[in-house]
């Protein structure tokens, strides 16, 4: 009988068997790959307390090089896990972008043609910033260490996989079998044999990059471009008289190609240097023969007449990229792909790590809810419908950006601000809008303006309509923007996203209006009476512990704070835990103690009438699911009923 192990504390089936030298273990979720995408999934698994494992074939995390650009939405995601500060304290903010082109007087020399205030900083409380991938991985690893639910298992080699008839298997079955071997370097150097193990899991996620083993072994089909683009990349401490070295720059020369620069933490600067473009399978450009000196030499020619030397090179590489995308992101909703395993593209937009983290942020809470028995398995369909569309848009925009990079000086490079405008909403991550589905109501705005009803997302049926007129500046399907509010209990200013952390909870954002008004107060009391009932969504789906609620009500009212007493409000708006007392972080207001209003501006920013109010239902990933009237409590109940299970009660 083989040794049976369970690092995830599952009860072992008595019939488990295997080769004599192979261990067998069971888990609910197995993540292959411990880069940013895999670690984001692991963070969700930790938050849900899942029986999960994350494995990687490398001996250590990334310390130098690789991805280095962070766009606003990604930093918001890091903030939701409580790790943004460790990133922003080290990162270099990007506030200005410069475009450089050949001089009209002497095309052998470049000159600045435009300065652009980076528009991304207007879309979020976080600007675009740059920091090496190793710091982002380190922040996630520290989080996993603190929470102690799972840790990255390294030096793990994936051998084979089987998943017979997973579309017919019950989701409670560990139907996916992954054979691995693992051993640390000390054991291997001492001549010890690697440990062979078969991991049996309910769900498998391939977060293992552009050359994904999971993707290949599970037969995911790929749409692939025929051309390949080659870029030289380096991180150096520059010795230069180039005046914009601490700004993000796009530099086009007349005859030597293009360079994109990005200022980094400390004195570092990242340069992406255009090398060549070849056809698929064309071996005329041998990347193995390219040295750092070759890349630097080409960059020096592009920078002319300015000097560029390297005081120190921290990292360099040659990227060969072809545009590719998988035709699907999942196999029977049991095997999933995230990040570069789904989409491969050039580094010219600085989007790769960002979209990868955002993929996992979308998938992680859905897997968590289904595995914990809180949500119906149909929820997992929305990962394909939401994120594959994002991947398609990513590749379309990247083709345009990389072609702009390759084309050299042109009208777009001279008028770079106009060219970049069409990329900003997507690139920032703020403009990503998910289509109608079981977790996203149809937007009535299109029907009101042009008579056209917003179509259902393919494969998804949506029964509900958002009342866009109640929150004119909020878009159903987008992440809810974060604005300043004031805590009712302690008068502290807070940002809305601060109480929408990555806990797995849905948020009913109750814009309660002016609670001094008797008519408005009756509306709120009626809503509270409904949600206090055991028949309501809150009564049925909130778990016993306040910190583990599946659905939370967050109240933002527009009355002066000093004229409202927290304990005079219905208890369902500030729940009382039998051991911990009242929850003082659920009610916020438009007026601070000195009468100055931050929330009044927030009501205006959200486009909500401060005298009327509304409800905005937000998913665990902060995206807006539904906008409705305060009276639409039955609609809210029905929305959750089609998602959540009896086990949530």
TrEMBL record:
Coiled coil: none
Region (Disordered): 444-463
Positions of transmembrane segments: none
FAD-binding domain residues: 27-396
Signal sequence coordinates: none
GO terms for MF: FAD binding; oxidoreductase activity, acting on paired donors, with incorporation or reduction of molecular oxygen, NAD(P)H as one donor, and incorporation of one atom of oxygen
Keyword annotations of the record: FAD, Flavoprotein, Oxidoreductase
Family: Belongs to the PheA/TfdB FAD monooxygenase family.
Protein name: Phenol 2-monooxygenase
Annotated source species: Vermiconidia calcicola
